[in-house]
C-alpha cells in the first residue's frame, strides 16, 4: 500500500494547488496559510509561558546569542522574521519551535548540551522545523488522511460492527503508516537542515553527534521501537548526521575563513 501515499499526495496537489518543496527538495502538501499557522504558534507560545516558569537571564542571553548567530545566516525573508526565543525552567531536556518563529529551550537541555556548538545543533534543528514548514505539512497530512478515511467509510458503508473494526485497522494503519513516518522524516530533515545552518554560522558540526551521544548517556528506561516512535532512534540520528558530516565540515571551514567565529559565553 506504500505506493498509494505518493499517488494520493499527487492527486491532492493537483486538485488543491497546495504542493511545495522543502529546503532539502522534498515535495510537501501544505494546506494551511502562514497567517493561520503563525497565529496558532503565537497562542501556543503565550500559553506555554503561562504554564512553565522562565529560566534565568544569563541562560537566556546565552541561548539568544547562539540563536542570533544562526538567524544571521538565514535567507533574507526568514532572517527578517520576528524570531523569539525563551528559556524555560524545566528538567526535561527538550526544545521546540512553533510557526511564526517562536522557540523555547528548557534548562534541562542546557545540562545535555555542554557547549555552544552542541546547543547550536539543537537550535539549528528547531529553526529547521520552521524553515521546512513541518507544522503545516503535518497538520495538512492529518487533515487529508482524516478526509480520506471518512470518504472510504461513506463509500463502503462501513457502519456494521465488522466495518467499524476494519475502520479501526485502517486508522491504525494511517497512524503507523503515515503520521509517524512523516514525523520521523521531519526530525531527520530538521537534523540535516540544522547541521548545515550551524556550520554556516561557524559552529562545529561535529558537536551535533556529540550532543546525541550525550542524550544516549542520559537516557533512562527503554524506548519504543523506531517504527512506533515519532522520532528516529538516537543511533539513526547519529548515523544521519555522520552521513552529512563531510559537506557540513566544508561549510564550517568556509564560514570560519569568512570570519564567522561565534563566541557565546556559557553561564
UniProtKB/TrEMBL annotation:
It holds the Pfam family Peptidase_M48. Its cofactor is Zn(2+). Residues 1-20 form the signal peptide. Residues 62-242 form the Peptidase M48 domain. The keyword Heme does not apply. It comes from the Bacteria. Belongs to the peptidase M48 family. Binds 1 zinc ion per subunit. This is M48 family metallopeptidase. Keywords: Hydrolase, Metal-binding, Metalloprotease, Protease, Signal, Zinc. Transmembrane segments: none annotated. InterPro entries: Mito/Outer_Membr_Metalloprot, Peptidase_M48.
